[in-house]
């Protein structure tokens, strides 16, 4: 429900007293959505093991990156696993990780009521992620067995469109080789954040499985570089089942499904800043207070670490995304898991401001709980929940998993040039199936919210002109290759 045009001014007034003066004039100026039930532009024309179409658009808000102008890159996570089909692999499938190029058109709202702008997101292309040399795929053995008297079987985990020089990554949880999770040849990939290089030719993507940070060619989707993270972030006992993996690595390393969740790039394009979703096991694990921020020099690969205090109002939160405001200040998205998609009401959705200037480097600290005075403190930048409430969106209808944030191009609002901040949700592909929590599938669409604000400390990233997208002819060739692949490999069957 949208209020009259006076609404944004009222919202800004409400938040002015609670925020740093430089960021006082924050307004919600637009909202838009894309159906998760739509087909993407990957060209894939087959079904996954769980019966879901391989080209399902599904969710696309695990990560969001500005690519200049009105162009954004939107990132799904490891694919549709909300449908129960094989608990031995946590219902994951051979969904190929990808990023989508989306245009976000903002037009002044001429209706005389509602928000100042109308947002129209349009899908332009879908880029699949692959490696040029062979990856480690599961044989299917880990997905074959009996659970609660029911038998399950699963085939090889390699995507059927693999070729001699294209080995696609996959969301399937058994696609790994024995050993450390830091093995960059493991095919399993759970993308959670994306950023664009300043020259516009590469994307950097963080992954929860490793955790890893990879660099991919933006035009083709080929992996070009692996950034090595500290060994203390990895685990050594891998499993296709998350609960088993967590229990087997209780002493150290990232928590399963709570790895490298966020990623920022500094405006000068020289530094990546990665963010763990929850504390490492040695720092208290899931539910702990101190996450680790990892700073990476892109040229050398050198890393440094900083402790982040994720506590708000006496409660510890998991962190969903990090975004560079300038070279040393960052916005961190903190949220609970409540709201639309989780069958309950949202309570905490905030952007927190953190400054790395003068921060203590903590690489040598094995357990952050045993040190005092080293954690970075935060201040509230924006109470997202309160602002969406003020726009007529109830707690039950705020997406549970708000995860993607990106700055966009400046826009003129009531005669004043302001910065824009885009926010997206991860719908876990629920928009394409009957929601378990009730309601209609359309309620679980990919949602986008646009905020404007005035801030003197903001430094925009200087991104070169957009990389040309694949032509229609190239897409036709991709479709032909797919048909050949289907004929050669046959269709994967759902597990029984």
TrEMBL record:
Pfam families: PEP-CTERM, Phytase-like. Residues 1-24 form the signal peptide. It comes from the Bacteria. The keyword Signal applies. InterPro entries: Ice-binding_C, Phytase-like_dom, WD40/YVTN_repeat-like_dom_sf. Keywords: Signal. Gene3D superfamilies: YVTN repeat-like/Quinoprotein amine dehydrogenase. Residues 57-429 form the Phytase-like domain. Residues 466-491 form the Ice-binding protein C-terminal domain. This is Secreted protein with PEP-CTERM sorting signal. It comes from Roseateles oligotrophus. The lineage of its organism: Bacteria, Pseudomonadati, Pseudomonadota, Betaproteobacteria, Burkholderiales.
């Amino acid at each position: 429900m949208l209020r009259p045009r006076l609404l944004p001014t009222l919202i800004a007034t409400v938040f002015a007293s609670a925020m740093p003066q430089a960021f006082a004039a924050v307004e919600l100026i637009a909202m838009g959505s894309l159906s998760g039930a739509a087909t993407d532009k990957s060209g894939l024309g087959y079904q996954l093991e769980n019966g879901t179409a391989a080209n399902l658009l599904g969710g696309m808000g695990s990560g969001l990156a500005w690519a200049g102008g009105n162009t954004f890159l939107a990132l799904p996570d490891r694919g549709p696993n909300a449908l129960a089909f094989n608990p031995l692999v946590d219902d994951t499938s051979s969904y190929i990780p990808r990023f989508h190029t989306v245009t976000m058109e903002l037009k002044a709202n001429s209706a005389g009521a509602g928000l100042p702008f109308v947002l129209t997101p349009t899908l332009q292309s879908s880029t699949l992620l692959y490696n040029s040399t062979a990856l480690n795929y599961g044989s299917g053995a880990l997905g074959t067995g009996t659970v609660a008297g029911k038998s399950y079987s699963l085939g090889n985990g390699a995507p059927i469109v693999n070729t001699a020089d294209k080995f696609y990554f996959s969301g399937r949880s058994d696609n790994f080789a024995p050993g450390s999770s830091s093995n960059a040849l493991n095919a399993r990939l759970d993308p959670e954040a994306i950023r664009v290089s300043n020259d516009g030719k590469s994307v950097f993507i963080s992954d929860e499985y490793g955790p890893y940070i990879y660099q991919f060619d933006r035009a083709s989707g080929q992996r070009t570089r692996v950034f090595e993270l500290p060994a203390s972030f990895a685990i050594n006992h891998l499993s296709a089942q998350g609960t088993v993996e967590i229990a087997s690595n209780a002493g150290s390393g990232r928590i399963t499904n709570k790895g490298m969740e966020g990623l920022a790039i500094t405006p000068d394009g020289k530094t990546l800043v990665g963010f763990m979703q929850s504390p490492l096991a040695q720092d208290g694990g899931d539910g702990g207070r101190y996450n680790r921020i990892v700073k990476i020099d892109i040229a050398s690969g050198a890393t440094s670490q900083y402790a982040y205090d994720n506590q708000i109002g006496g409660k510890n939160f998991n962190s969903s995304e990090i975004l560079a405001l300038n070279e040393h200040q960052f916005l961190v998205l903190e949220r609970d898991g409540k709201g639309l998609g989780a069958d309950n009401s949202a309570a905490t959705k905030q952007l927190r401001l953190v400054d790395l200037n003068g921060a203590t480097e903590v690489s040598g600290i094995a357990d952050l709980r045993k040190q005092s005075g080293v954690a970075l403190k935060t201040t509230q930048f924006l109470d997202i929940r309160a602002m969406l409430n003020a726009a007529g969106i109830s707690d039950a209808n705020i997406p549970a998993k708000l995860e993607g944030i990106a700055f966009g191009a400046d826009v003129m609002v009531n005669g004043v040039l302001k910065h824009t901040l885009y926010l997206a949700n991860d719908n876990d592909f629920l928009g394409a199936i009957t929601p378990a929590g009730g309601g209609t599938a359309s309620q679980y669409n990919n949602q986008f919210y646009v905020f404007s604000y005035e801030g003197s400390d903001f430094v925009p990233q200087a991104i070169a002109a957009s990389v040309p997208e694949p032509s229609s002819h190239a897409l036709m060739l991709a479709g032909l290759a797919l048909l050949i692949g289907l004929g050669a490999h046959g269709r994967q069957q759902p597990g029984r």
